[in-house]
Amino acid sequence: TPIKVGDRLLLQNCDEALNGKPATVSAALGGDMWDVHLADGEQFRVGRHQVTGVLAECVIWDLPGVGTPKFPQKTYLREMGIRHFDMVVLMTASRFTEAELVLAEELRRWQVPFFCVRNKVDADVEQEIEKEEESGEDLGEEGRLSIERQTLGTIKSYFETEFGLHDVYCVSTRRKLRDQFDFHRLEADMEVVLKKQRLAPSE
């Protein structure tokens, strides 16, 4: 399939700014040469020998929870077509239900990559900080960071002990808190899986 304007390319043999990063084609120059740009707008010119693949288009689906009367666990995987997904994010603000854990096992069986995410951890951290501050103690920045680390550790230990989940991502989806917790690690790990699942050959 010819590479065209708007395609997202995965590149190699470039400078550090481009290697392994997706770049969007701005112009097809002919002779197997293209002008491309990164997300920040920086422009480059690349040749066929630098293109390792073309990233396919992706669609994000926000599905209803599993294990409800309308969406029973027994038929959920089949009716939602999840075994054909590139990856799945299981998200909770408290704990995972038995139906969600069964779904995770089904995803493993069908070899569908999935990520377990504990949302709203900022509320848990603030709650623990408030408990300490009620005693009149001035925590300071280091004290608050220490409580944050302890709280995240407690949450992750809980999911590992209770549900056997060894890599739970603790996040807050509040925009101002996206640089905290595991949000960027989740993004990076999802990008790796997406590239692996949706990388189409460049020839």
Automatic annotation (TrEMBL):
Keywords: GTP-binding, Hydrolase, Nucleotide-binding. Residues 7-193 form the IRG-type G domain. The keyword Ligase does not apply. It comes from the Eukaryota. InterPro entries: G_IRG_dom (IPR030385), Immunity-related_GTPase-like (IPR007743), IRG (IPR051515), P-loop_NTPase (IPR027417). Belongs to the TRAFAC class dynamin-like GTPase superfamily. IRG family. This is IRG-type G domain-containing protein. It comes from Zooxanthella nutricula.
